[in-house]
Amino acid sequence: MPGKLKAKIVAGRHLPVMDRASDLTDAFVEVKFGNTTFKTDVCPKSLNPQWNSEWFKFEVDDEDLQDEPLQITVLDHDTYSANDAIGKVYIDIDPLLCSEAASVISGWFPIYDTIHGIRGEINVLVKVELFNDLNRFRQSSCGVKFFCTTSIPRCYRAAMVHGFVEELVVNEDPEYQWIDRIRTPRASNEARQRLISLMSGELQRKIGLKVLEMGGNAVVGYLQCFDLEGESGLVVRAIGTACTLDKLSSGSAPNTNTHVHPNTAPASNACNSPSKDGKESPLAHGCRSTHNSPVHSACSSQRLSQNFSVSVPTLIFTGMGSGGSAGKEAGPLKTLLRQQTQTALEQREFPFFTLTSFPPGFLVHVGGVVSARSVKLLDRIHNPDEPETRDAWWEEIRQEIKSHAKALGCHAVVGYSESTSICEEVCILSASGTAAILNPRYMREGCLDIGSTDHRFEEPSPPSCGFCHIPYDELNMPFPAQLTYCYHCRRQKVPDVLFTTIDMPPEAAVTGKGCLIQARLCRLKKKAQGEVNATAISNLLPFMEYELHTQLMNKLKLRSMNALFGLHIQISVGENMLLGLASATGVYLTALPAPGGIQIAGKTPGDLSNEHHILTIQKRINDTITKNKELYQINPPELTEEVVGSPIPEPRQRSRLFRSHSESSDELSELDLSHGKKDAFVLEIDDTDAVEDIHSLLTDAPPPTGFYSCNTEIMPGIYNWTTGVQMFTSVRVFRLSNANLTNQGLNKIFTDLCENLLKSFYFKLRSMIPCCLCHLNFTVAVPEEELIQVAVTAVAMTFDKDQTQEKPADKPVTKGCSETEEQLQFPLELCADSSSITTQTSSKISGVPESTNVSPRAASVDYGSFADRCSTWLELLRLKAHTIRRGSVKTSRRTQSLAHSVSSLERSSPLPEGRSRSLRSNRSFGGSSVPVVKMTPLSFLPGTRIIKYLGIINMFFIRETTSLREEGGVSGFLHSFIAEVFAMVRAHVAALGGNAVVSYSMKECVLMENPNKNQAQCLINVSGDAVICVIETDQESMPSTINVVQTCSSGADGAT
Amino acid sequence: MAVELDVFVGNTTIMDEEVYQLWLDGYTVNDAVKVRMEGGVLEEFEASADVLLSDTMDQYRTFQMCERLLHSPAKLANQLLFQIPPHRQAILIERYYAFDDAFVREVLGKKLSKGTKKDLDDISAKTSVTLKSCRRQHWVQFIGCDGFDNFKRVFKVVEELKGPLVENIRQHFLLSDKLARDYAAIVFFANNRFETGKRKLQYLTFQDFAFCAGQLINSWTIGAVDNMVEDMDVDLDKEFLQELKELKILITDKDLLDQHKSLVCTALRGKTKAFNEMEANFKNLSRGLVNIAAKLTNTKDVRDFFIDLVEKFIEPCRSDRWTASDMRLYLTHYTNSAHILDTFKHQVVWDRYMGVIKSCIFKMYHD
């Protein structure tokens, strides 16, 4: 089914001087799509040319529309010699293919050259007309929506979660083709950029097809990665979660949580008020007899698919402890539930979900972290059309993950992600996730419509602790574990420690605040080739996992916390070392028992000086624990009474940690991270290594006063975010000059590198205090033999200090309120917008006193970008218009609240009123100021509401220089490149009509340098979701507007 | 072992005003770190010297990348590379173009095209502005000490534009009104090559000259009569200069000179202690002022305008110990009396000339 792509080149500005003689440029533009190219006239002697071209029309298949980018090349006309390229703009037109996303791309784009960086800007208009509207989505995957966000996007409702989708495509890397020897670096870079753009387009289209097959209409938690395998090729792979999303019309609530049928009122649905569930349900199963304990490791099997492959013993982290405890048998209904759920999930090959946060009721129990790694030797991909080898590799890993989850009594894996680390021909494939039991209702066709029938199988656990309850069978524990009755509901068993890769469920009860916990590790390895190398690496991996786990556990206890969220373990391979970095956010879950302390024991008790030494260390550890408790405000309520019949261990009970490597002798055996079934948590000092380790435990400096940090979306324990947001990317590369480094020495360097980075962030962002660094995402790499590279992307967010102490008293209730709020505000924003444009009268009411409340807040967000873009909205407005009119008739209060939002819109607009209503064509020439685009790695911006998702941003850039010194060395080079990447992302978002990017991430930053040759090259891949967000209206007006929403919603129903 | 690469890039560009000033003042990264350490940032925020070094380097890099944009500030507002809030942009620009009066005063007297390192050494020694800062202070580039290219580029912008000079500078460089006026003065002085470096002129400050430049721009340039010509505020009105020759009649016609003197003396009698000196010096002073006017058609004499004012008028008065109010009284009556002379026909030119002369002398006559 074909479509028509139309592009118009309007103008350029700030072009570089291409003709030295005249200090001017004779610029023209080539517009290329597929194999068709159009040219504009030459605009002679101008650095700010006005082409104002005709509409260039491309008639193409929608398959091409999905795969190909629109390529715009700006050139300098030269009569006597070849025309010089100034730079290019690639525009991904995918957002235009989805009716719900953007309808036009219009704005200033930086003109980018891989050698010179940004060279001026060009103003472009792009539109797409798809023919054959009726059958539009049948044969291609146009219209399937993609989201990087790893939760249900804010203005959608998940009607159904279908499950895992994956795909990979491979190709030869142009950089390694023979032709590369004769072409210029620029040509080579451009070939690569274009190829990757094509490949991601193709990948997205193929995934889209799979989603359609499954009956879905969207991919959430879309994660796309590149593997630069060098000689052996280029792999682009992606995973995601297929869903059926319903757009929340202005009438229904933007409540991502509900999974009820649209006709069912939210309040009547049981799932929406989980606390009520708990009370009503008579089905109190005592507790399930299951176990929990640390590690279960899968034996690897040599599945030699190609030349060589080693599957590494992998781990399941849950918690640790000792001694099982007796429990009651699982109720029959539970079994029924399980069977039902399993059948629902077993139909799927991989019951994996890339989501990290879920609608309430979706996540029933969490087992623990499951992960799998495998070491592979790369070989040339002979036939790009059949990437079976790579597929088989991942298949293996996924099978392993699945079986780990089963061992934990879980039927699904959530918070699932995959990654690779490549060095020369060795590749480590990793996958990890959190084993979990899910509510089956989301997975089965038709279930949502008869939600009540499923209701009786629902867990009776309260939402604030239910997910902590063990999912596995207490009588057949897969590993030794220490269980207690839940400290919150007292009815079911919980482990003493819980590790997960997901975000903390918002309804979970926590004590105090959380903090970032990192385990860092370096291991030297001998340089080797081929299989020897791969074997060496796979032998090292289990030890690294073990050590990282030990560090995490110790650091967790040192902070007096009992759970980790957002755990991400990265193992990166270099020629002569392996780097391991585990990051997570530690919290004290109220439902879990208090962690024991850490006790130091010496190997030789007789030695007096040694004993003294141990006492000193013990004291330091105890002091640190006390200090941390204060710092993170961890004051768990004292237990007044024990639940009868349950063997709850004393809170101070200790588990033992052995520093023994005995298990290691058998590399393929199960790796037991529980460190044996000991009853005390003891660190034994038997050698200097152990002393070092303990010291390094204590070196982690807490963040300075006023700062918090976490790697999850938001910080557990902070609830009142204000609007200050600063997203940043920081990269550091450290050169090891000393060739004779020991493991210990390396560890210290690596730890210092990470700690110093954090310190730098705190210092730089000190003006934002009180603030929290959220979603701290560390990526480590070993780009060359003696280099360690750490790249961090995070966001600093301000919060209101005065109210941080207490979580709103009654969470389920307040949650309900806030949802109502959400329901209310969404239509209001639309009303505001439409009325300011369509009805002159409504904007006149802006003098209503209430409006004064809003203005100070409203001023902080730039509405210019979309106030300007009225025409983008026209479609939407036409839809909403009668809704509003109906609303206004029915409620008297409506005008007031409407005026309120109108005024907020107008006041916050930096442009004069007349301007904001002007047409886009005027804007192009105006030289008006650049619209502000906010960026954040989170799925939301505090204080604002996302009202529209405009499409996915997935961009890949290469930058190269042959004048490294002149550009300020590697730092100068990378600094400007990152700034350029930000600028290009912002420009694309603004052109789509957006004012923010959410779920932004920098997935790749590969830097290669050769200072001797004065050269450097860098590849960056970024992604995110372009959105329109508006400031949240004041809460005070909310109660008065309930009527509005109801009328609005009824109106909307009528409309749709 | 060393940090090979270290960058921090924010979506909103982070800039510390203190570091910016240090950068403008020409401090090296290491010196800036020292200054910041002494300032106590570290104690305030438990940071180490490494952290400070890393932060300073980042910011210096950012400023260097921004500098290109600061050369034509209008670009700063619609460039896409750095997301900088508008109020911060204004601060960046205003600070970038701010300069040290004492220093610019020195340069006003120099031959602008041939600024050498040695000249800068001398100036920096005299004004105790560090040499680094001389080089950094961007008006230096503007004037041309640091190479004529930058001056030419900026000058070209103003040159090609029609309309008032101050307004053009203000709009194209987005400067405050005060700073734009100062720049207009610098451009004006540079264009007309006024001599300001002579020892006798040393007592005058840059602000004195800037004031005079403003007066000349407002009344004596082409722009004063026609506001749509190129260079209207930079070049003096040639026709007017030609007409000034006619004023010579005031000193060449003996009757007119005597008549003028008696009118002035009548008006002044009893109103000042310096009356006797005024009466005795009248003819000399009048010849002085009128001769200056008559010679302004020569470029050389235009250059000596200020030195002539001082030699021919201000110095004689000062040696006779006139007070500032004496000066006002005298010049007011001197100007007004010429209107009563029935044979003197050049009233308009006279007013245009004396209006500027009066205010310049008032400004330049320090008690």
- What is the total tally of β strands of chain A? 33
Amino- and carboxy-terminal Cα gap of chain B: 66 Å
Q: State the low-pLDDT regions of chain B, or none.
A: 138-150
Proportion in β-strands of chain A: 25-35%
Structural category of chain A is alpha+beta
Approximately how much helix is present in the residues of chain B? Answer: 55-70%
Q: In one word, what is the shape of chain A?
A: globular
SSE diagram, text form:
The complex is a heterodimer of chains A (1056) and B (367).
Chain A: E1 2-13, E2 27-33, E3 36-39, E4 56-61, H1 62-67, E5 70-76, E6 84-91, E7 105-113, E8 117-130, E9 145-146, E10 156-171, H2 185-214, E11 218-228, E12 234-247, H3 274-280, E13 309-312, E14 316-317, H4 332-346, E15 363-377, H5 388-407, E16 412-423, E17 426-438, H6 451-455, E18 483-485, E19 493-495, E20 498-499, E21 510-524, H7 530-558, E22 563-573, E23 577-589, E24 599-602, H8 608-631, E25 682-685, H9 688-699, E26 707-709, E27 721-735, H10 743-764, E28 771-781, E29 787-799, H11 811-838, H12 840-844, H13 851-858, H14 864-867, H15 870-890, H16 893-908, H17 913-916, H18 920-926, E30 934-935, E31 944-961, H19 969-991, E32 996-1010, E33 1015-1031, H20 1042-1055
Parallel strand pairs in A: 9-11, 20-22, 24-25, 26-28, 30-32
Antiparallel strand pairs in A: 1-4, 1-8, 2-3, 2-5, 5-6, 7-8, 10-12, 11-12, 13-15, 14-15, 15-17, 16-17, 18-19, 21-23, 22-23, 27-29, 28-29, 31-33, 32-33
Helix pairs in contact in A: 11-15, 11-16, 11-20, 13-16, 15-20
Chain B: E1 2-10, H1 17-24, H2 29-38, H3 41-45, H4 49-70, H5 74-78, H6 86-97, H7 101-108, H8 117-127, H9 131-136, H10 138-143, H11 148-159, H12 165-173, H13 177-192, H14 206-219, H15 238-244, H16 249-252, H17 254-268, H18 275-295, H19 299-303, H20 305-319, H21 324-340, H22 347-364
Helix pairs in contact in B: 2-4, 12-13, 13-14, 14-22, 15-18, 17-18, 17-21, 18-20, 21-22
